[in-house]
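Here is one chain, start to finish.
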Amino acid sequence: MTFNTITYTTDQGITNITLNRPDRYNAFNEEMRSELLAAMEAAEADTGCRVIVLSGSGKAFSSGQDLKDIEGKKINFSDFLKKGYNPVIRNMRNMPKPIICKLNGVAAGAGCSLALACDYIIAHDQASLVEVFVGIGLVLDSGSSYFLPRLVGSARAFELATMGSKVSATKAAEWGMINAVVSVDELEEETNKVAQYYANAPTLAVGMMKKMLNDSMSSSLEEVLEYEAHYQQLAGDSTDYTEGVAAFIEKRKPKFTGS
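Its structure:
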């Protein structure tokens, strides 16, 4: 697929989506928001896609909203979010495939929200995350007020939101905001290892577990037990389950197809 503000490639089950406005530190304008949503929808519909790797080109992951793109304009912020960022975040969390964030630099504002909306975050040791909204008199958006307290607790979330404190990748890993930190030179290789794991995993089961974990945050134990029974039946009916059991008995590595 061809886009103007992102790049999109798929190879051996791995779809790479890269924000591509390096001269603006991959800040979002209307076109990039629209193209990112279209790319995510395409990846979801592509049966050849088993995992998505989201990254940024150049020195940053994303610096958030491009303020020059809205400078001097009267903005209806409610509509701006409902029609712009919210559909992207909603798509990512409902995506029945894992999304890996390759955090190659700073993730700020809506860029931070975008990173936190991913399922697995691997960063190099010079990367950072920062909720910059308070610096221009705005509140968290694009899902950050949902993700932050669940990842770091309410007290630390309040601090990060209201003080706009920058969090290094190392500290973010210690706090449970991200999964792994590697050196700059190792980021590409280590991200590929994670992506290859998910490209060969039982995609159907992984997608259902993603939904189960999302729903568990607002569910009772009784509801969770019912969800588990429901989804376990679906998983048990899959060809991946049949293959997994056969591989276990035959003492070999399973060849999952994601169905």
